[in-house]
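Recap for those who missed Tuesday's class. We walked through two folding examples back to back. For each one, the amino acid string is listed first and its predicted structure tokens come directly after. Nothing is annotated here on purpose, so try labeling regions yourself before you check the end of the notes.
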Amino acid sequence: MGETKDGAGRRTARRAVLIGGAAAVVGGAALARGQLSHLWWRLPGAQRPRVEGAVDFRGARWVAASPANYRRADRPDDYTIDRVVVHVTQGSYASAVKVFQDPAHQAAAHYIVGADGHVTQMIRELDVAFHAGSRAYNERSVGIEHEGFVDRPSSFTDAMYAASARLTAGICARYGIPVDREHIVGHVEVPGTDHTDPGPHWDWDRYLRLVRQARTAPTQPTGNGTAEPVGTEK
């Protein structure tokens, strides 16, 4: 979400996914069913079974986005994840949840961080969220929305910074993403975007310092293959 450079809302086009198939043959004979089942987990583009209500960030609340606002995938096996994109909702937490559940919106981020520090996950990190306005960035990044407005410094609370930093630190740990401004970017920095968020009042120095501090702390053993159920606490 976020404010657009021309003041108009941006529509993110839905993308079609090309799903490739693979057949494995050893010595000219087909592999046994058990062997194929074992290899299936390692094939790029394979759809891993999902646990209803599972989250990738411990303590997050799960609220499902509309399937029209993301594409099922098997990241990082089919697409490398090497970016975190910071957004601002230009509205309330409730309004962000509502539009991400609306199939006509055709855009959503993986997470929303509230002013009170609560984290809501709406799309699994496995999947490609339509959040950045760029197919390449959608496929390679995790998008985090922050409740508030780009022109209101008071939107960015201590609780929000701390919670978002822990979230980003966990993402960076899972995928080996460096904690720097090349890999943790604002929506405004996505090539071709017309958005301005997170805006001039987002304190990048503070945020990266908090992410680095959280990055050195022990992290929960979650990830795309072992997501935790809603309600799990640290």
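Example two. Treat it independently of the first, because the proteins are unrelated.
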Amino acid sequence: MSAEKFTEKSVEKTHAPASTDAGGPARPGRRAPLVIATVAIVAAIGITVAVGVGDDGDKAPAAGAGPVAVVSGGTDPAKAATLLDRPFTKPALVLTDTKGEKYDLRERTKGKPTLIYFGYTHCPDVCPLTMSNIAIAKKRLPRADQDKLQVVFVTTDPERDTSAELAKWLPAAGDPSFTGLTGEFSAIQAGARQIGIGIDPPKKEKDGKVVSMHGAQVVAFSPTTDQGYVLYGEDTSVEDYAKDLPKLIRGENP
């Protein structure tokens, strides 16, 4: 009998100057994520899992209102990668890159191993950590494989994350080869939903703190099918990426 696992969806809620939560930080300087789904195991039933959040950030879209991920029964819970039996189609996003030029995501990454992440440059923890982990793992690859891998960072805070801001932040947080994209928030939000990532517009509270909520998954797209068939959560380590990247670049299951 096969077993299936609900995908873990985490949404990052960041208060600019905050420090730790009541139970202490999971990592130095790290804010705790809001986990809006738990792991469940069922037998011999095909489960469809809606991925994303509603306006309140605490509930999934109604049936048929958003993308659906079917988690592979062969997924090893000890692995960082979550394999999808029903992959995501690459978002039809046409945004602006760090050079201020139009960037057609589907066209520019067609046939290339691609990692896509939605985040923002003012994030104090999860976003820079994710970019750094991928960058370190990428540097361990042979040069030919480094050149093949596409890493795309799409801002969830386009009002502040201009092309120039992304051009400054990405090399420091990750790697100069990473692609940074900005544009209209409505287009970005729609594109994120196409691959199961829920994001809300950044909000400023009365005390001036900026609160941003967004899904923290990295979605890996195959170079052979251009489908998003693997999910990585925010706790994925450098070693996890270093182990999986060679297979992702070949379009294989990690």
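Answers for example two:
The mean pLDDT is 77.
The two ends are 22 Å apart (CA to CA).
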